[in-house]
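so my prof wants the structure for this chain in the tokens format not the other one, which i didnt know existed until like an hour ago. anyway here's the sequence
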Amino acid sequence: ALVEFYVDKNVDFIKTYTELSANQYDNLAAYSTRANLALAGHKPLSVSLIHALDSGQASIEHGRLFMFECFQGIESFRQLDDPISHYNAEFMREMLQSQDREKCATLMGAMANSSTRWVPTLATLRMSAMANDKSFRQDSRLEYIPYIIRKLLWEPDITRASQKGYDKRGRFVHADFYAAASAQVGRAHSLGVELLAGTDNIDTHVFTGASLHDELAALVEAGLTPLEAIQTATINPAKFAALDDDFGSVEVNKQADLLLLNANPLSDIRHTADI
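here's what i got, hopefully its the right format
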């Protein structure tokens, strides 16, 4: 009924979330396929990456994907009654210390050979990693964010990351987690996983439009070349959305949807913001 409702609304895809059960996910996948709708969004914790790939999920969002999937204890974690409630600083440290690199390479290879794209949204993990950085918390772009969003959502979120981000030995886990996730993005890309740029717009310290430039820089820091990073925001998503006949590259007969820059972003990705 849910899928049929959205078919009538002419939507493009059904978005999945972390808390879906495996049975719910399989039903959505089956009915969405019949209705010629894509599945996109979070990969449910109850579903393995291979299962999601086999189900034809079009894209998977967020940078924790392989941190979870390559965790040696992932199957036991999935079996918990409420896995999300166990996701804290100490558990994140355990994940960091129990990554199966060989399994990770196999999973990345499987994803590279599938039609599924990855949108790492490193901006969301960077927020927690930078929670103790005073300059980050005083970003000049905050003036563009509505007061109620800042006070009721963003400030409590980044304060929580700052205060509860320490493991039992007093180490700030979020910075280490971000570094590991960033390295996985670079490795996945090198193994052929196609990336799309995204920021999880209006999530804490994600600034509409502006944070996309930060994301491109983060992708370069993860190991992509500036050109490859730019392609995650141009030709790759155009192909993904089947709009590459009109968008995504500078060619005759395509839409002239251009940004004119003062400096070459191929020499420094930060130049994408020098408009």
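also thought this was worth mentioning. The first strand starts at residue 13 and ends at 16.
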